[in-house]
Design goal:
By secondary structure, the chain is an alpha/beta fold. Helices cover 35% and strands 16% of the residues. It contains 10 helices and 8 strands. Helix 1 crosses helix 10 and helix 2 crosses helix 3. 48% of the residues are buried. The mean pLDDT is 95. Keywords: Hydrolase. It comes from Planotetraspora thailandica.
């Protein structure tokens, strides 16, 4: 792919505890620049199910596509990104598991002093974040009323999603870009840097919380456009 032949299709994949509506500002910025944008609504019951949901949307694309994942969505795009329409991967403060790794294995050994995400003990096989700590941990740079809405509209995150292991990581075969959120309290920035380095990603660092896709949609859209032009 040359810089004169940019990709026009973008598929956005959300992470755990939230749904695809959080991508709206990024969606609108990309649409305004002429991109065809689709959003995957992951059930977040299992990694296999979410990869299947993503492949379903990829099947509908009419050409090369940039596949974007936030947080747990990075595991999803690592699994589903082997799809033949995926030309580039973009990780937004996301997990980038290697073969046999899951989100669960990646969070098992946090860096010393890193904040511990306020994930409550599982109930009936599902996880939630402590709603009273949601704003500080997940969305520290969003307005309090928006963070409260996200906390109260959480999507239950299945243990089979957390524990689902990647089979053939797409980033080993396809070019990737990575946005490090430097104020992230869910995935420590040192872990983000380590995963992006391992993947050989083109890296941008931006001050922002784990919800950087909402708080800094300009920076997110900018990196996606870099991936679309291959720069």
């Amino acid at each position: 792919m040359s810089s004169g032949d940019p990709i026009r299709n973008v598929v956005l994949v959300h992470g755990g505890f939230v749904d695809g509506a959080g991508w709206q500002a990024v969606y609108e910025l990309l649409k305004a620049d002429g991109y065809q944008v689709s959003i995957v609504q992951n059930p977040t019951l299992s990694l296999a199910g979410d990869a299947a949901a993503t492949r379903q949307i990829l099947d509908r694309q009419d050409g090369p596509t940039v596949l974007v994942g936030h947080s747990y969505g990075g595991a999803v795009i690592s699994e589903a990104g082997t799809h033949d329409k995926v030309a580039a991967l973009v990780y937004i403060a996301a997990f980038a598991p290697d073969k046999g790794e899951s989100v669960n294995t990646l969070i098992a050994d946090p860096p010393p002093g890193a904040p511990v995400p306020p994930i409550l003990p599982p109930v009936d096989g599902f996880l939630f974040l402590d709603r009273d700590k949601f704003h500080d941990s997940f969305a520290g740079d969003l307005p309090a009323n928006r963070a409260a809405f996200l906390a109260d509209s959480q999507v239950p995150w299945g243990l089979d999603a957390l524990g689902g292991a990647v089979t053939e990581p797409a980033w080993r075969a396809k070019p990737s870009w990575y946005l490090v959120a430097t104020d992230d309290k869910m995935i420590p920035p040192p872990a983000q840097r380590a995963m992006s380095e391992r993947a050989g990603s083109v890296v941008a660092e931006v001050p922002g919380s784990h919800a950087i896709y909402e708080s800094r949609p300009d920076a997110v859209a900018s990196l996606i456009k870099q991936a679309a032009t291959g720069r």
